[in-house]
Design goal:
The chain is α/β, with parallel strands linked by helices and about 375 residues long. The chain has 14 helices and 16 strands. It has a 6-stranded mixed β-sheet, with helices on both faces.
Length: about 375
């Protein structure tokens, strides 16, 4: 059985082709620029060329592409966008329009397409990946399962904090008792409010099983593939991403607590303090939210010694030289594939028929 797992981040998209008949270390891998980074470059080229811009497609990851669109408008050029594409910048289309983006329907977009730079927005470019693998004589159409992770704030109601909306979703999924794999869904099970996950499903090829998942829980679940991490009953695992940092306190396999913050607002000292507070069950949701983070949740009020801090993610250097002596998790020998390995494990819960082959190849979950 083969699973194509793609972890879509802000800086990179990390791609793993897992084959149950091969050693995990022999799985094929790519670490390439993220879709939002690629789109930002394309928008920048339109700005340099002095061309107006039409954006169509689906809701995708923002950040770099949103900043590029703002720079395009600031340079005096126009940006048109269909509603789904525009929601990449903000779920409230009135807010997007207030920034200068002109919202058009599909018919209007078709009329504009011939006279402006036209760019399509999407997180999961299956055709592009198929071409890349095809250069090396790998046919992605023979893959059995597709699995994609993206970070999804969810579609918050107008006037409601998207930070709070996302954290309430995280808390709801955890309290449902499904664990880290509870953040993964099959194609027809995605909550309606998780619009970015829904967009991935809408652009994925039909006819094959699809699993979608949030990136941060996927990375933490993947970190547990490192045998040293898995061997500890009490462990704090932090995924220090380019934009967001999420940490879980795991106690004998249970989620005892978590927090999520914006990486750009964290210093080494602040992150150390939060990790200490998480293990001691003293972390405050109100304080973290007031600091412009997403929030914190304590499920087990019993304090514990910080036995092991395991970290993954592209910004893990934030804890370099920390007194916490963090362990750099390397699932199957590659930190950058943590999210992808988490996706593979999540497939065994979402698609139970895959569990036997996955556990035979990787060991018990």
């Amino acid at each position: 059985m083969r699973i194509l797992a793609i972890d879509v981040g802000t800086g990179t998209q990390d791609v793993l082709l897992f084959d149950t008949e091969k050693e995990p270390e022999n799985a094929l891998k790519m670490v390439m620029p993220s879709p939002t980074t690629l789109l930002a470059r394309a928008i920048g080229r339109a700005t340099e060329a002095g061309e107006d811009l039409l954006l169509t497609g689906v809701t995708m990851g923002g950040g770099p592409c949103g900043w590029a669109a703002e720079a395009h408008l600031d340079a005096g050029y126009r940006v048109w966008a269909t509603p789904d594409a525009a929601r990449t910048f903000n779920d409230d289309l009135e807010e997007v329009a207030a920034r200068g983006v002109e919202i058009v329907d599909e018919a209007q977009a078709a009329e504009l397409a011939g006279g402006v730079r036209h760019l399509e927005m999407l997180d999961f470019d299956y055709d592009g990946l198929a071409r890349a693998f095809g250069v090396f004589d790998i046919d992605l159409d023979a893959v059995d399962v597709l699995a994609v992770a993206v970070f999804d704030h969810g579609a918050a109601p107008p006037g409601y904090s998207d930070r709070l909306f996302r954290f309430e979703y995280l808390a709801e999924r955890i309290q449902a008792g499904a664990g880290l794999a509870g953040f993964a869904f099959g194609r027809d099970e995605i909550p309606a409010r998780m619009t970015r996950l829904q967009a991935v499903a809408s652009t994925a090829p039909a006819g094959r099983p699809l699993v979608v998942m949030d990136t941060a829980p996927a990375a933490v679940l993947g970190a547990l593939e490192d045998p040293y991490v898995r061997g500890h009953d009490e462990v704090v695992i932090a995924n220090v991403g380019n934009m967001h940092t999420l940490a879980f306190n795991l106690r004998e396999g249970r989620i005892a607590g978590l927090f999520e913050h914006h990486t750009g607002l964290l210093s080494r000292e602040k992150l150390e303090e939060l990790l200490d507070q998480l293990s001691e069950a003293k972390i405050s949701h109100e304080v973290l939210f007031a600091d412009h983070g997403h929030g914190a949740l304590v499920l087990d009020p019993e304090a514990a010694l910080l036995d092991l801090v395991a970290i993954t993610g592209p910004r893990r250097g934030l804890l370099a030289d920390s007194y916490l002596l963090p362990y750099l998790a390397v699932p199957h020998g590659d930190m950058m594939m943590a999210g992808c390995w988490g996706l593979v494990r999540a497939c065994s819960r979402v698609l139970p028929w895959t569990a036997g082959a996955i556990e035979e190849a990787l060991g018990p979950a």
